[in-house]
Structures are given as structure tokens and as C-alpha cells.
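Q: I have 447 residues here and want to know how they pack in 3D. Can you give me a structure?
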Amino acid sequence: MKRLILLFAMIFVVSLHAQDDRIEFDFHGDSLTIWHYQTWQNCGAKYVMDLQIEGSTIYIMENDTSSDWAYCMCYFDLAVTIKTPPASQYSLIIHTTNKFIGDTTFVIDTTLSINQVQLISFSDPECVNMSGDLFDQGGMEIPLCDHYESGCQPLFISTLNASSYNENMHLIWHIDSINCNIKPDWQGFLENDTFQVTVTDTGLQNSCSCPQYLTAAFGPFPSGKYTLHFKDGEYGYPIFIVNEKVTVETDQNELILTWNATDLNCCLEPLWQGWLSNDTFHVAITDTGAPCDCLCPFELSARFGPFQPGTYILDFINSQQEQIEFTIGKTRKGQTLATASSYQSNCYYLISNEPETPLPAEYTLLRSYPNPFNPVTAIEFCLPRQSDIRIDIYNINGAFVENLYNGNIDAGIYTIKWNASRYPSGIYFVKLNSGNLQLTNKLLLLK
């Protein structure tokens, strides 16, 4: 015999109310609070939150742990605070349990974007060995190690660019008009933090001139940050850094960045920041220390995380080096998120359901809740006297699907559950038969 649940020996009709769930997020540094406002529930509900993260999806189950049905409905505001998950864009899926009928109801499927990556630790800044600092050495000639002259080019604007590679400096000079047969004689001289470069044309002079670009590589340089002085500042004074080095390594789902920097403020007090934009991780460091009357090299490191598994590009804004690629490996699937705290408001906009008569006056097949449903619904019915009844499910074509109850039962108000997990979506009918009496209600299964 199928199990029936005796609800109440008097009439009880739940007043329905339009549900208006609202989801909001609050970030507080390393914690995240997820708010679920205006959830319409039994006013005796007591919720405990279960959270899971799997890949890029966060699942929240709002479990009603109450022991008794309170015969009234009201709104609740619910909140749960967790440690902020790794930076990424997530799908947030929320379900809630209904203790009264023992089913699970879908609430919402929305998106949650987390961009800020937490700074886990960083090294204390300390000047490294400054022996060999050029300020104590005077000037020195830097040899030319390579050069190149293009042929005549399409017209372009004159520019100057300086960059470093290992211990060398690479200069590129675009000039809008120069001797077609140029044979440059390059010379470079370093004095303090200024690199003086001169070029003399030793080629055959003629009436031909055209746009060209010339390159020259000088080195090796001592480590440092330098200003290029060329053509008396006609093209500005480009800055280049020699032997700056940025390296990255990963430790599980965390990134460790190391920066060998040249000549920063001796009183450096770094403020690190990191944020994610698609697959690019941007890092910036701000010096919050008071300026000193000296510069010196530093080796700085910082650890960021956690990251979602994947391949990322490091964009270190304070460095002139090119972007660096790093990969975070896979982590354990289906992690449980620890709840730091949870909150449940007092119920508001309460609607009570008072009993009206001790027993139902007639046979009634009341509403099913929920309807539409997936996959469980509770079917209520009323019996004015002890009766032999049969409750069956039929599909839209009138074909028999399943028997829910067949037998004798006392007068009262009852509910019986139908689990339709093995049946396809569609319209079904529940029929209650007692003698010559037949009552029918429509059900809608949505999967």
C-alpha cells in the first residue's frame, strides 16, 4: 500500500503568493556574501546552506531543517558568506528544499564574475648589493656589437626607439630623409645614467636621399636604468632598463611572480594589486614609501591566487618585458565550499491559514504543489467520510501511467507524492475514483 501523509484533520489551503526572488553579491576582500532576497516559504522554515563548486559552476542548496509545518507562508531573506572562489566567471545555481513535501525546487541560474585575485604574500623590499654602481665609476665606452641599414622605404615619420635584451641595448632610428648610400659609424659612451650615442655617415655623399631605418646594438651594459641621448634630444630621451628580469612559477593553483628590478626608490614600500580580464592577469605595483635620495636594485616577489585551472597571460604593468604565459593545472573536482557564516531574516508579509471546519464537507481533489513540477509533486485531496478510493496517473493520450493509491481510508485531508523522474516532460492527469465519483486535475511535468 502506498504511503499517505495525514496533513491535518481540518481544511488547510495554502495561499499562493507570487515569488519575487532577488540575488545579490557582496565582496569583502577575501570573502563573498551571496544574498537571496524574498524567498517565499513556509514561515517555520529553518535553512542550512550547502555549497559545492565544480569547474566554473557554484551550486547552493538551501536545506530546510525545520521539524514542523507552520501552516503559514512568508518571505525570508537568506545569506551565506564563503571564502572568495578563484577569479573567474561562474554560473550560480540555487535550489531550495521544501520540507513539507520533501522535494527540491529550482530557484535561479545566474552568472557571478570574480575579477580580483587575492595577494597571498609578498617579500619585504630590501636593496641588493650595489657594488659596481656606475655612479662611482665615472664614464665608460660601450662597444657597438651589431648594426643594420635598410634600403629606401616608403615615406614615414622620424622616430627613435630603445629597448634592452639581456645585457645589450637595441636602438631603432626611423629617419624621413637620409643619404641613400649611408655607411654609419656608431659610437656609444655611458656616463652615470645617460648613454650618449653619436652616428657619423662615412658613405659616399650624392644627391640621393630617401626614408630609411637604421639599427644599432650596444653592449654589454652594467645592470641599470638608463636614458638615451641621441641627436641632442631631437627625438626625446627614451628610457631603457638592462638586466631587468621577471619570472613566474606556479604552486598548485597559485602564481609566484619574481621581479629583479634595477634602480628603484631605496625607501620602496610596494603595494601589489592583481586582477583578471578574460585570460589576462594584470599585475601592478605602486610605491607607497617616502622618496629617498638614492636608487638601488631590488628583488621582489609576490604570490597571488587561487586561480581556476587554465592558461593565462601575465601582464606586469611595471615591467618593460613582454607578457609571460603561465598555466594552472587541474584541481580536485567537486570541492565543498566552507561556509564562514549564514543569515536568515525574520519572516515578513506573513499569510496565515486558519482551519475553517473540522472535516471536509465533500470529496475534493485539491491543487498539486508544485505545478509545473520536476520531478516530484504533492497531490492533496479531501474525503468527507471513510471511503474506498483509487488514485491513478494518465498521460495526455488517456493511457494509464501509474497507480498511486488503492484502498480504504478514513475521512480527512491528505497528500500523496508522485515522483515522475522516469517519465518524459508533458501534460498528465491525476484521477481520484470513489464509487461512482471521479475527480480529475491536470499536471505539467517540466524537465
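Q: Anything worth noting?
A: The radius of gyration is 38 Å. The chain is about 0% helix and 60% strand.
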